[in-house]
Amino acid sequence: KKAENDVVQEVIYSNSIRALSELREIENSYMEHLNNYVSFLQQKIKTLRIFINSLTPNYLDHKVDRYKYVSNPLNSFGLLRRAHQDWPKLIAYLKDQGNIKVDIEEMNKLINRTPHANDMEEALMGMDRIEHFYDLKSSDMAQGLVAGQQLSSRMSASDCLALADYMYKRSEFRRAAEWYRIALSVFTKPKNNIAFKFYAPKRKELEKMFVISRLQEGSVENLTDCLKELSQDPNNSLVHLRPRKSPTMIEQGCQGKFPPGPQLVCRYNSTTTPFMRIAPLKEEEISRDPLIWLYHDVIYDSEIAQLTNVTREEMILGTTTNYTTPDRVNRLFHIKVTDDDGGKLDKTLVNRMADISGLDVGNTTTLARINYGLGGYFQEHSDYMDIKLYPELTEEGDRLMTFLFYMTDVPVGGTTIFPGAQLAIQPKKGSALFWYNLHNNGDPNLLTRHAVCPTIVGSRWVLVKSMLNYEQMFKKPCYK
Ligand SMILES: O=C(O)CCC(=O)C(=O)O
Ligand SMILES: [Fe+2]
């Protein structure tokens, strides 16, 4: 049993908003116990003060010679009685920890749930992506101004410093310098000693790191310039001392810079399957190559509530290893996959997908619910595997098509991007995107490679299902 408890399953809070909400619960819990702890101590101190103030001169007058004092029988008797009766009680009272024992124990348990270093790293990566992908000004971001939206919070000097150090470590010296300078500008000498002693940044250190970062990027000849920069308003961005990298296709897409798509049709579809004659669908054609449709209002709020009502323990960490990305292993999001045991709702949904697509969804109801995290990002990948590279797929065929239900609105960021086709689709709660990954002859359609832009604001939930090629043999129409 002990051994079981010792194995602490590693949680990465940063990779889903679901898990981050749990971390907030932990913080609230810390606060509650700390408050209890302090109230208890305060009460005790009050009681002890009253006690001290109420003491008679007998206790207090140390100046009287002690021999003289005890020569008086009344003093001697009082002394003996006090030493025998009162002091032990007082000591017992001092030792009594009341309920704070519980508070301390509880706080100790919470410490076991502290995010680890790689969770911190994930959070930093998320913040880095939000800034970098959307080409935000660091000073705007620090003030909660992201992609035209004013958030209700600001970053503290410590937050800015953590980000600065992260950029510095990654040799992003210009951005590091920006963040050191912002940290300085929001830095105020902490009012309380604990902060000063344990975690507040030091002004001198920030100034030093600013200069070092600037020199790392430029050269020593820049020293006077860079000291001048240090005193300037951090709202004026630092000049680039090295050539700027131009934004990638994905970054351009995330910044909304893809050209507007052709005006394709938007209609009520009532013909794909008999079901749709009685329940026509709002169907929007997004693209003809690759074939992509967007359907509106195809998953209901009550269903979404049920699907997203999962505990963090039920979800696992999704990484790039399960996808065809060129990257090293990356943490993507938290995911819950249900197979055939998914229950009634899963069957309903899979049947609905069959009705919408006119395809045979096969015997399995494998569905994935995904919740993205802080700056959550899914790099470019394909949903097809390419059967020529993975011959083991011959049993079921490659992933012919993908169904992607958006279960939440994402107020800022979180666009699904097809860089090859220059398409960007913003999640809308209740909508579903549906596309073919393969050409008619079964070859992969490279234009279906896609990515998900970093989420800036919101909790991004999607439901994903792929349908396999060979199950569609008798169903799938050949599109031109
Ligand atoms: O979240 C999205 O928009 C896309 C998810 C995705 O690409 C996948 O699960 O393969
Ligand atoms: Fe995908």
UniProtKB/TrEMBL annotation:
Domain Fe2OG dioxygenase positions: 344-477
InterPro entries recorded: Oxoglu/Fe-dep_dioxygenase_dom, P4H_N, P4HA-like, Pro_4_hyd_alph, Pro_4_hyd_alph_FE2OG_OXY, TPR-like_helical_dom_sf
The keyword Iron is assigned to this record: yes
One Gene Ontology cellular component: endoplasmic reticulum
Enzyme class: oxidoreductase
Cofactor: L-ascorbate
Name of a matching Pfam family: P4Ha_N
Compartment(s): Endoplasmic reticulum lumen
Keywords assigned by UniProt, alphabetized: Dioxygenase, Endoplasmic reticulum, Glycoprotein, Iron, Metal-binding, Oxidoreductase, Signal, Vitamin C
Example GO molecular function: procollagen-proline 4-dioxygenase activity
SMART domains xref list: P4Hc (SM00702)
Superkingdom of the organism of origin: Eukaryota
Entry EC no(s): 1.14.11.2
Record-stated family: Belongs to the P4HA family.
Function: Catalyzes the post-translational formation of 4-hydroxyproline in -Xaa-Pro-Gly- sequences in collagens and other proteins.
Protein name in the entry: procollagen-proline 4-dioxygenase
Species for this entry: Drosophila melanogaster (Fruit fly)
Lineage, opening ranks: Eukaryota, Metazoa, Ecdysozoa, Arthropoda, Hexapoda
Gene assigned in the entry: Dmel\CG34345
